[in-house]
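Journal club side-thread
Mid-discussion, someone asked how the predicted structure for our own chain would compare to the paper's figures. Pasting it here so we can look after the session.
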Amino acid sequence: METIYLIVRNIVFIVLLAVFLEMLLPLKETRRFLEVVVGLFVVLSILNPLVSWLHDEELQQLDLQMGNQDGELERILEQGKELQKVQSEQVSAAYGEQLEKQICAAAQMVSGVSGASADLVFSADTPDNQLSLERVRLVIEKDEKHVEPVQKVEIGPKPVEPGQVDDTGDQEILEQVRNTIVALFGLQPEQVVVRWKE
């Protein structure tokens, strides 16, 4: 309704201005020019509110379309988060496999160990959600070709009974493997559990 009021008001103003200018102009040729100019102003005064009204409607439709795009944007963001989670899991798995291989190789560097298998436990409780190595369970195999150094034989009060096995050498190898893993990977001794393969 306000649009119609503006159109009528502008047309009345233009017509009054045209009548006033026509009275001032003495020649008929200039009056024709004035009529053309006044006609253009009338057309503009009618079209201007209509165009702005149509433009407002287009903006409203555009707002509705943008609202639909916001839903699509949220869906795309959710898919991005899911892809990031999957990628993070794949990277973590690859990191775990590589770290297992490195720990097993480090354990096999110790004299008396022929093979090793590792089981790693990770914790993602860090503030930046990065993996941190929480525990290492390492099973090592004895090198059968390994010759134990000759032990000092003492004759005296502590004879070794038949059937009793001296496993101090095996314990030393376990400790040496644990110390190697702790030193190379920056772990605490209580985080590394090493045992012989049964």
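Post-session note: Residues 4 and 49 are 8 Å apart (CA to CA).
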